[in-house]
Amino acid sequence: MLSVPSSSALWQQLSELPHSWTAGTPFSTTSISLPPLIPSFAIFWGKLCRDYSAWQVELIVTVFVQLIGFWLPATIYQLIDVYCPQFSKTHKHQPDPRRQPTTSQILHCIRYAFFVTLGDIALQIAFGYLTNFRPVFIISPQLPELKKLLQHFVIGNLAREILAYYVHRILHHPRFYARYHKLHHSFTAPIAFTGLYTTPVEHFFADIIPIVLPLALVAHYYEPVHILSFNAFLISVLLVGTAEHSGYDFAQPPVSKVHDLHHEKFNVNYGTLHFMDWLHGTDVLERVGRPVGAKGKGSA
Q: pTM score, two decimals?
C-alpha cells in the first residue's frame, strides 16, 4: 500500500531522488523551501513508478485523472441541482423548467456516461495488449521539467482545439448529424454529465483522437512526453468540458455560456477555446443580438 513519509523523513528521502527532477528549475533542497505538496508528490510518484510497471502506471494515472477531472466536478454540479434548487435556478443559463431535463433523463445520462468511461478503460487496455503493453508516454520516477510540461500543455490544447473544431463541424453535416451527433444534442439544456453522452463514433473521433493524438505524435516523432505532462493537459480538457456542459453561469465563464448556446442553437460555438470559432465566424456570445458570423474572419 502506498504511503507518504512523515515530515521528519521527507527531505532525507527527497534528497535521494534523481537530481534531474529539479534540474533546470530555480529550486533546490538546500537554498529554498519547495511547496510541501511538491516534494510529497515527488516521493509518492517515485514509489508508484517503482511498485508498478510503466503501462500500469499509465493506466492508473489516466483513470484517476478521469475521476477527478470529470466525475468529481460533474457530480458536484449535479448535487447543486438537487440540494440547492433555488441557487441552481438563479445561475442556470436556461432556468426555464420546461427546458431542463427530467430526473429520468438525468439518471439515464449518468448511467450512459458511466459505461462510456468503462469503454474508455477497456479501449486503453485493448490498445496496451495490441502494443505489447508499451506506454505511449514516458513513465519515469522523475517529475517532468516545468518548461516541458508547460510547452506540452500549450501544444496539446491548441492542437486539440483545431482538431475538435473541425470534427465537430463535420458531425453537424446533414450526412453525419442524425447518426452520430444528434444523441448529444438531445439535451438542449445540457448538464455536466452530457459531456460523455455521445455515440461511440463521436466519442472516438471528437474526444479521444483530438486529446490523445497531438501529444502522442510529439512523443513518437519529436521528443519524449512525460505521462504527467499529458495528464496535466488531459485534466484541463476534462475540467473545461465538464464546466461548459454544466449549464451554470459561474462555471468558467464565458466557456459554459457559449457552449450552452451551442446546445440551444446548434450551429454556433463549435470550439472550446473559441479562437477557431472567431476565425470561421461561428462565435456567438449572446442569445439575442448580432447574427452568426458578425464577428470574426469569415465563415467556414
A: 0.81
